[in-house]
Amino acid sequence: MPLELIDALSAPGNPAKPNDDAYCHAGRLAAVFDGATGIADEDLLPGGSDAAWLARLGAERLAAHAARLSGHDALRATAADVEEAYVRQRSRPPAHNYETPFASMMMVESVSDGGLDAFWFGDCAALVLRPGEEAQVVGEAFGKRAAEANAAARLAATHGINPAGATVRRPFLEAQRASRARYNTEGGPWVFGPTRHCADQVSRGAAAAPSGALVLLASDGFLALGTDYLRYDASGLVRAARDKGLAVLLDELRAIEQDDAEGVRYPRFKTSDDATAVLLRAV
What residues have CB less than 8 Å from 154, skipping those under 6 apart? Predict the structure, then answer.
């Protein structure tokens, strides 16, 4: 059963910087990728930023593999392609793990019994709204965002600065690098990255998605309307995407962020994050 594409957008948090998000849609399969903001001293790859390179290539290769592979097999093939391209295109091997590009991801695939298989890394999410029901949240975004806000507030208090102020990067850099260094290592969190082995560590879930069900895939930057700013619950966010359109919701998101540009009311590591959303209908 295909997933009908109703609406989609992907926008940078800062128009002067690369958009580190990407998305794809290919019949029964769709995904969003959220590249982790680079914290190395230099980029190792072409394409504006290493995170943008990873997200775009991941989305491109996943859409290509969806023509002949399903679910986990498509993800494995994608990760293998990305690993090969990374070794071939990088200017040098990373000296530290925090130099490696990583991304969160949410991928869904419609299956024949009216269900949805989901595969994810990190804090992207899928919100599934079935007719007559409240939305089911697939993924970990709603829990993880509260933890990130608390971390931003604590670090800001320690350094005596506003969480999303212009001086935020250097005081927070050491802590961010220490956290990133644990990614895709034994005992650390697993995310999408330029190694085929990441596909073996992906989180998996399922949801009923009968005909007429709406599915909203989104990166954490878009989900902030619900997780951080509490303008919508999960069901309300899906309905607003359907009724208002994603572009209107993006305007709402940016207005909230500009009214709190330094992150005083809503602690966060930057004023605005890249925001990506894909609205689908099961048919």
Answer: none
